[in-house]
Structures are given as structure tokens and as C-alpha cells.
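Office hours follow-up: a student asked to see two folded examples consecutively, so here they are.
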Amino acid sequence: MTVLRRRLERLQAELRGRDIQCLALIPGANLRYMTGLAFHLMERPSIGFFPAEGPPAFVLPRLEAPRFEAAAPYEARVFAWADGEGPEKALRDAMMALPEVHTLAVEFLRMRVLEFKLVQRHVPNALVVDAAPVMDALRLFKDEAEVALMREAIRITEQALRAVVEEVRPGMTERTVASRLAIALLEAGGGPVPFEPIVLSGPNAAQPHGVPGDRELRAGEVLLIDFGTSWSGYVSDITRTFQIAEPPSPRTQEIYEVVRAANEAGRAAAGPGVPCQEVDRAARRVIEEAGFGEYFVHRTGHGIGLDAHERPYIVEGDETSLEPGMTFTVEPGIYIPGEIGVRIEDDVLITPQGAESLTTFPRDLIVVSTAGG
């Protein structure tokens, strides 16, 4: 039995167990997980319907249908529609081919009003529920093949990071460094990026999700780089903070060492049976005890796989027990507005024996370039 066929069987078992008659997915990570194909989210609606019993039904633009039919991973019915006629008839035929739907699961975080209104017209009385718990139950655990794809995405990312930091010089702009990262990822074989590279220097680094701009890199300041790539859909996400040209000041070194210790504490706390919030607490405790607690303004980490942010979440209140096959980030940071920001982020895999950091780029405070370079 193929991997995708097993996923379909597991999905249908989840639906039956939750008394959900059908799940509707649009192009994105969930549909790719279930079909192995990356469909485009565009003005032409594409919807996959996965009933709790029987074969799935796909409503697809006619130009997309042959690709699915050529690689169909399991028995499924395809209802194609042409640009001149619109999707209404295809959608109606698809819904008629499905068992009666009393409860429909849709992606609350992804499905657009366009698809939702189209579907709702044909099941106006159905109870609509969030698909996230259903899909999370499947995607939470990565198999060996999925982990291998993540390892390759990480290898490409670290290769690109090594290449670019060798080029960094004072006077370059944040935007220039971000552009060189994007090019280096492509040259190393990376796929679509899960998010645009975050490259921030000096006081700008105090913005956890700041946008690279025209600020020039200056000797003696920090340079925060947060970026990733994808390989066959699976993504990487790494952050390292560097020192530009000159040795760090005692205060910069102190802040950096606190973050590094927090990162190490978070990774050390992770393992089978450990609640997610305990990893957050371990990392956060280090920063709080050092007197910087108010400057750690986000969760310690998030799940990673086909999406850059998915379950589990490494945050207070998430009591999910970590189990082998789960992958997530550990990324504590200290952000002092107007002064400095430091973050160190690793991608972690839970194994039967404990936790493995898939990212291996050095965590020492590396001084890049030279003042005269």
C-alpha cells in the first residue's frame, strides 16, 4: 500500500471517529499532504472532497485535471470545469457523488470566502467545523521519508548561510544581504521559500519579524538572519545572530550567551513524553533568571513540516506531549527596543531516545567580515 493510500485510510478513520461526513481542502499544505501534488491557489477554484466513506471527489479547472489524473494516488472522481462555464456544475455533480453530508470540515485558516460560498450553496444545512484537528492528527508525526526531506531543506539552508556570511561587509544593506540569501538558496537547489528572509542589523534586530530595509550594516553591531527553504514541499527554518566586523561589547556578549543558554536548555528539555510547555518553560527560565524576561516576547517555538508554522506549539498552555516523529523549532530571543535583538533558532526532531537538532550550524557568536573589508 502506498504512503498516500495509507494517509487516506487514516484520514477517513479520523473523520468517522469524529462523526464528520466530509472534509474539503483547497490548494495548500493539507491538500499536498493528501495527494502528493502541489496545486496553485488562484482565481480558479480547486477543491478536494474527502468523504468518511468512499472515494474522494475533486473539483478542478480543466487545465489542472490531467495532471491529477496522471498521478492519481488512489481511486478518486474528478469533476473538471472549463473557464467558459465556471465551477458550479462541476461542484454540484461532485457533491451529488458524495454521501450525504451533515457535518463538513473546512480549513478555517485557509479556505477563502470564494470556495466556502460555493460549497455552502450545496450543503446549506451542514454543520461546518474546523479541519485543523483532523489534519493535525495526521501531520503531527513525520515518517522517515518526511524527515529526510526536511534534512535536505536544512542542508541547503545551512550551505546558503555559510556562503552569504562570508560575503557580508559593513556598508551592505539589509536588503542586499536578504537578496543574496535568496540567490544562494536557489543556487544550492532550494525550492519555494516558506517566508521571505528576515535580515536585520543593530537596533532593527529588536523587531522579531522585522522587514529588511536600506539600513547599512555597521561594524560593532549584530546581524540577525532568519530564513529557510523547501525541498519537495518540506521546509527549514533557522536563525543565527552574528557580530559585524568588530568583537562584541561585554553587553552584547552577555545577551548573546543568555540566548544561547536558553536555546540549549530548550533543546535539552525536549524528549518523548515531555509537554510542549515544559520546553518553553526551560528556555524562558534561563532568560528570566538573567533579568531579561520582559524582552522575550514570543513563544519558544512552533511545529515545522510542510508549513513553516504548524503544530505542536512550544508555548505555555500547550500540554501536547512530545512524541517520536514530531518536529519543531526552539528559538528563544531577547529583543531590547532601540538597542539590540538576538535570536538562535534550531529545528528539532523528537526521537525514541530524546531529541535531535536537525540544524547544526555553529551557535557561537561569529564575527563576520573585517572593519576595513
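And the second, which I mentioned at the end of office hours:
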Amino acid sequence: MFAEAQELFTRLATESSELVMPSTPSLPIAILPIFDTLITSIVQLDPQGYYIAYNRYWATLLRVPHESLHGANIRTVFDPSPHGIQWVDLAALAHRSRSGSVQLSQRLRRHDGSSLWVSLALTTMRDQHGNVSSFLAVMLDVTEQVETEQNLRQRLRELNALRMAMNDIADKLELEDLLPTILRHAADLMHATNGEISLYNSVQQTFQLNSQINMGAAYTGLHDLLSPAELCELHRTREPYLVQQPDHDKDQRTTLICFPLIHNEQLHGILTLGFKAERIMIRSGELGLLHMFVRQAATSIANAFLFAEVQRLATTDTLMDIYNRRHFLLLAERIYIQAQQQHTPLAILMIDIDHFKLVNDQYGHQVGDQVLQQIATLIEQLVRAEDMCGRYGGEELILLLPHTGVEQAQVVAERIRLRIATHAFTASAGVLSITTSVGLACLPDTTITHLDALIKRADTALYAAKQAGRNCVMVG
């Protein structure tokens, strides 16, 4: 239909240009009924944009009575924003065109304020003197087509953003990097103003806040948003949950949506996103994107938990839940080099359980394992967070004390020895008394040039403690 209207329009313009026309010619009265049968807008305008003639479909498209356009100017339907093309610009384009015509897609504004898109062809008409006498325009409503294209482009942008977000979180293997990345991408995808991620502790059956954006300094976790009953319901249904939260800074409410993070039917946590009150609607397409992202996020979190467990098994003695020898020595080497470069004190304690073979022989290895576990727990309770404990071999433990001189190390060693000696060890065989021997060595020491030498010095001191009757501390 549009092509037919253009052909008719071109023929009329050609025929009109061959006629001697007045300064403001009108379309021939005989063909106006033909124009009124078209579902394409046909408009004739004077050089200033005032209507000379138009068909009824143009008024229908503008949603105004046909008669209301008499004497009106087409300028009113052009986008008034600085970025929108104006009638004078369009007329100038057609006037300067070699063919005298211009065709483009144009966004127009109806009189009720709504918008429409038209495919517009504008041709310049001239009088016998070659002066511009009027313009003829053919306009086809392409609003649905343009909006569909815009929606498709928006969808492509969203899908590309989703792909990039998924690739980004797939590269993160550690939770401390992964969770803030998930939250940031989720907020960007949904244009959320705030949000948080809380991980679920299946043992304690609680949610613990891990990462947040703009939740406020006083925010401590999901229990600030949901009642215990609501948390239980969220855990039971595992469906998104809508929360209305007062915004104390403004007299309005914030909408929050909680999304369970589920992988293989296991709940790993909750992702919460917040939206200000002015955003009253969330498109279904956005929710669809977020559901896909949340599934990938839950998978990435499950993989991060698995990676952490693999790392733990690779670096930890599973019986005593402290570093194994290989990983302890790897970390200790770095700390040793740093201490040497910065000329800071560093102490190593070698701790050995006295007569441990008798415990295994008399009570069995199961009781021996229980003793080892309790000793590791006691030592962990007596040292600082920066101190590092590992299982060196069998019943022998090694303890690294950064920034600790010989006198401080002796105090720590004696505290450990005394705590173990006075502790009642409970095992399946009953209550046992256990003692330990401790050897220690410290930096700075000019005779020690590598970590192995420092450990050997502490091991020699441990042997001296054994020779001195056990249950004592010796300095190497």
C-alpha cells in the first residue's frame, strides 16, 4: 500500500509540476476522495508548514477531528526536544536534495502527547518560476515495526549483557570474588538501586550476609527484611519473594525482590535486589533474564563451594583440620622470606606428643586420633589469627609465629605445654592425661639462611626437650 501511495504521489507531483500552478496550489478536488480511501497519510503543506490539503487518514493517525487541522501547522507534531528533527530542517533537506525529495523514518507527536513513528516521503513542488510553492508528503504508520525493532535491539543488548555477566562470573572460582561480581551484574541487568547476597548455612539453618550494595550502614542481613516466618516460607517455597521496605530518607517505599539461589535442588543463598518507588513495573523480559542469570549464579556458587572444598582437602590435614605439611611449608616459605627482607622476628615451634605410640598401642588408633584432634583444637584456641599451625608428621605439629621474638615465643610455647598437660582428654577409652615436648627457634639469627635451617634448629631443640625428660620447652 505504501509503495502504491508513493507511486500515485510521484505521478501527481509530476503532473502538478507540468501545470501552471498558483503560489499556494491545492490538490485537485477530483482526487481527494481517492486519498481518503487510503490507509496512508497524504498531506500538502505550504513552505511554512501550514496545511493546504490532507486526507482523512492523517487526522485519524493524529487522533483528532478532521476539521481541527484546517489552518493548523504541521510543526506541532514534530518532536520538540533538541535532538528531534524539526519541520524547517526537513523542508530544507527536501529543498536542497537534487531530486527534490527526501525519505526517512520520523518520530512524531500526536496532539494527545502520545508518539508515533512514520516512514515519510517529502517532495518539493515548484511554481512556473521555479520557486517552492508547497510540499507533498506521504506518511505510513510504522510505529509497530519501529517499536518491534527497538524491542529486539533492547533484547539483544540485554542478552549480550547477560552473556558478558555469565562469562564474568564463570571466571571466578573463589567466593570472595564471585559473590560481589554476581551482585554487581544482577543490579546492572535489572537497573536496581541496591541489593545483597546472603549465603545459607544448612547446619545452623540461617542466612549470613556476604555482600551488599547501598543497603545502609545499619543493615545486618535478611533478618532485617523478613520475619522468621517469612524466611521459613522462602526456604520452603524457594520462589521469589516481594518485600516492601520503608525508605527513611524519602517519604516513599522501596521494593525488594528476594531470589533463592538453588543448584541441584540445594539452597545456597538468597539474592535480593531493590528498586525505588518510581519504578513501579518490571518487564517480564527483565525477570526472564534475571531468572537465567540467577540459575547460572547458583551454579557458580555451587562450583565455588566445591572448589573451596577441593582446596581445603588439598591444603588441610583432614584429621586435625590444620594445614598439611606441604601447604604449611609453602606458606611458611613466603613468611620466612618476608621476615628476612623486613628484618622482623619470626619463631617456629616443633610440638611432639610424649609417648604417643603407647596411646595407640594401649587404646587403639581411634583413641589416638581423638587425642590429636583435641590437641589441635587446644592449640588453635591459644594462638593468634596470624599464627599458622600444621601437622608436620605423625604426632608432631609445627607452629609458625610471625613478628614474635624468642621471649614471646617461650611464653606461647609454655602456655601450650601447660594447657595440654592440665587438660583432661576425653576419648572412647575414658579420660586421658597427655603431655608434650616443645622445641623452638627464632629469627633474627645470622647463622640461619633458609627456612629448612630454622625448622632444623627447632627440631634439634625438640630432641633436647625429649632428652631432658619430656613435658618441657627448649630453645634452639
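Two things to take away from it. The CA atoms of residues 315 and 330 lie 10 Å apart. The longest strand covers residues 115-126.
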